[in-house]
Amino acid sequence: MSDTAPEWFKSSYSSGEGGACLEVALRPTSVHIRDSKTPASPHLTVTPAAWAAFLKLPGRG
Questions:
Q1: What CA dihedral angle connects 7, 32, 51 and 19, to 10 degrees?
Q2: Torsion angle (degrees, nearest 10) of CA 29, 60, 18, 44
Q3: Which of 40, 49, 37, 52 is nearest to 5 (CA)?
Q4: Comparing C-alpha atoms, which of 39, 33, 40, 41 is closest to residue 13?
Q5: What is the three-class DSSP state of 25?
Q6: Among the residues of 1-61, which ranges form H helices?
Q7: Bigger pLDDT: 60 or 52?
Q8: d(CA 29, CA 15)
Q9: Which of 8, 9, 24, 56 sits a CA distance of 20 to 30 A from 41?
Q10: C-alpha dihedral over 6, 10, 11, 16, to 10 degrees?
């Protein structure tokens, strides 16, 4: 397992006005998701397959 810190980026679906911002960090075996307003809070971790399925949900984009 890599001990480097995940590189977080803001989701393209997040509002440009702040307030509803989601950040994502992609790793080889996991995807981490957090609220940009509280980066030190616990975050959600899912598999890359689960993240891909989420992105393909109807009504996205």
A1: -90
A2: -30
A3: 40
A4: 33
A5: strand
A6: 48-55
A7: 52
A8: 28
A9: 56
A10: 170
Name residue, tokens 């950040």. 23
What angle (nearest 5°) sits at the alpha carbon of residue 46, between those of residues 56 and 55?
10
Report the Cα–Cα distance between both ends of the chain, in Å, rounded: 33
Kindly give the pairing relationship between strand 31-35 and strand 22-26.
Answer: antiparallel
**Amino acid letter at 6?**
P
Tokens representing residue 48 in the block? 């890359």
The whole model's pTM is what?
0.75
pLDDT per residue over 1-52, tens digit each?
456 788 999 877 666 666 668 899 999 999 999 988 888 999 999 999 999 9
